Amino acid sequence: MEVHEEGITKHEQLLQYIEGLKIGTKISVRKLAKTMTVSEGTAYRALKEAENLGIVITKERIGTVRVEKKPRNLSDQLSFEDVVEIVEGHVLGGADGLGKTLHKYVIGAMKIDAMARYIDAGSLLIVGNREDSHSLALQQGSGVLITGGFGTSREVKSLADSLELPIISSRHDTFTVASMINRALFDRLIKKKIMLVEDIVARKPRVSMLKLTSTIADFDELSIETGAQHFPVVDEWNRVIGIVSRKDVEELRGDQSIEKCLSRHPITVGMQTSLASAAQIMVWEGIDFLPVVDRNRKLVSSVTRREVLQAMRDAQNQPQMGETFEHLMWNGFAEERDQDGRLFFHGMITPQMATHLGTISNGVLSSLMTQAALTFAKDISGADYVVDNLSTYFIRPVQIENPVVITPVILEMSRRACKLEMLMKYQDNIVAKAMLTLQSIDHA
User: Fold this and answer.
1) Are 315 and 31 in contact (CB under 8 A)?
2) Higher-pLDDT residue of 189, 218
């Protein structure tokens, strides 16, 4: 075990140090570098990794702070504690109720009698320095968010404490606060929709593995027990050193060691790897099995191509709620079919798609033609694809509010790949072209 400890990298030592800090501790790159005797560049990379892991966050005017990692299965609803973090606020009273969730928020921009009809238990009233509104909201079971950096009276604070309903103050104005909360809600919905490797691993039984000392007979026994045809091979510290498959052992005797036939230095993924990334890795590398490891390369679980594809299809069947910019752009395009029943697409160039010069952004244009190609290829073959190669040609500028048509042309199609030419036209004139090669993720 001592050998293993010596093998821990500086990066891992920094992450372990950050994980060991008390929740709420402020961390700076310079202080971390000095404490751990590393360069500021090394400390910065560790902090960014910690931020990706969700154990630190960076707040404006405060800096980087150690926080409790939130579970993956977050609720769609925000808690009052989440709101405090989102609006960069501070709690004036009712701190014992920060863990409660809210189902809606109400902006108090009306007379108090009219306001009362919209406030109910579990809501959040966003209002300025109007103490009568603060009291009304608390009495009706609602939390209060005071904008403009204002405070409230001692009586209102006492009422909030007694009812265990938070009263929060934020320096931002009402419009900004509402925008920040809306953005946080949509970001949360998008993150929930993006499936990660850990979403598959969470519902799998214990991981099956072999050791370097295992034999072909051990492989056969484990394969019969689990029905699997691939297994990771680990060393004495549970670190992945190879993979062995049914194909590797076919011509070997039962008493022979698997060390002679395993594939060393396998490609692995982490728990935070997206399923789309895992699928692309499998396509490009021509593999059907990926070990899942932690930061120390210790085995956590494994995923197969079939599991990844099934999970991705299940996710596509879920209702669309939080939408990315790509979804919002593509939603403005409609599908139609030509005389041969093949898809083509038409839509309008909106102001959000344009550059400061009033023409369509090259990045947006590439994204639209890519989405059209993926949709067309799936319609033709029924398979899911990823982009292997993309070449774009911008022939003429496309203006805001120009109606355009995107027409796919098949150049070559096989079971594994699809080559397409995408034509974008405005008033029957070609304004852009794209050449795409797509790889099917349904086939090895």
Assistant:
1) no
2) 218
